[in-house]
User: What shape does this take?
Amino acid sequence: MSMQSREVRLASRPRGVPTAENFSFATVEVPEPGPGEVMVRNLWMSVDPYMRGRMNEGKSYVPPFQIGKPLEGTAVGRVIASQDASLPVGTHVLSFLGWRETFVAPAMRLQVVDVRQAPPVAYLGVLGITGLTAWVGLFKIAGLKAGETVFVSAGAGAVGSAACQLARLHGCRVVASASSAEKVAYLRDELKVDYGFSYLDEEPLEHLKKAAPDGLDVYFDNTGGPQLEAALYALRDFGRVALCGAIANYNTPGPGPRNLTLAIGKRLRLEGFIVSDHLKELPVFLAEAVPALQAGKLTSRETVVEGLDAAPPALMDLLHTGAGNIGKMVVKLGE
Ligand SMILES: NC(=O)c1ccc[n+]([C@@H]2O[C@H](COP(=O)([O-])OP(=O)(O)OC[C@H]3O[C@@H](n4cnc5c(N)ncnc54)[C@H](OP(=O)(O)O)[C@@H]3O)[C@@H](O)[C@H]2O)c1
Assistant: This one.
């Protein structure tokens, strides 16, 4: 049973903000699975800001996407044909094999997800790399402890919303920022942060002074740019910063914070991290996150766009101030 599948490819490398011309669509023939292989129909695809970096040429911690080849990305799908006893038809699997509808791959390259524990899409969000990123940044990198005050930028996004919730579950005081009034309402009303603010309505530093008059213990940095600068002012002596992302600089590299010298006098510790170095922590994280999700103490929220054609616009949207997503941006391809 061979079949056809559509896929999203990199057509050209963007200069600055990506446009529709940087992406193309192709239909390819998917062969029947051979011994040890399975055919998977993707149901959900993840849209991630780091994919912007892979559209550039040049060495990074992950290789760049190749022009004319499918964009690689995380997806959850269902096995629809199998030549491997470990993955029978109907099994839900996580893959890192690209923005495409259907594919054939060796079973050993796929990871089973337990859909009795949580809906499949949760494994792209709060129970997946997204949730693990928040957990590693907060507790392994920044060493956040109960009773401390943490500031999370891009707090209404995927990693940010997981970080806000996990920090609260650990007994911390949470300050979080986002662009719009709707997102700030989500921070306050649903994530129950102690102080949610828009980084656009007033200088972030003015908010941080009100939110944490005695200073911040930890800053979970998703944005870089002006909010990193504000946080450096607002951190207490011996404060810690988990440098998770710098989305303010992804399309157009900007200058670093102008006040980095404060890190010396305040004896701050700023540490970047890449979640893939910490995958061995996934079982530890899931042992905490799955019961919390099942008990309703952790919520999984997604912004869903439908169909493969919607994937490039969703990525382009994510990279802008005031992006359309609350929680994890995902593409729905099937039930
Ligand atoms: N280190 C790692 O291993 C790792 C792993 C995963 C993700 N990350 C990083 O974590 C960050 C969040 O990723 P995510 O997947 O959770 O995405 P996300 O937060 O769900 O989406 C990105 C958000 O960034 C905000 N944004 C866009 N441009 C901005 C700008 N110029 N200034 C301030 N905010 C801006 C938008 O929210 P507003 O509407 O509020 O502006 C948007 O919703 C990214 O920087 C990503 O690269 C790092």
Notes: The pocket of NAP is lined by residues 48-50, 133, 154, 156-160, 178-179, 183, 222-223, 225, 244-245, 247-248, 273-275, 318-323, 325, 329 (CB under 6 Å). The domain at 3-125+300-332 is CATH 3.90.180.10 (Quinone Oxidoreductase; Chain A, domain 1). The chain has a mean pLDDT of 96. DSSP finds nine helices and 15 strands in the chain.
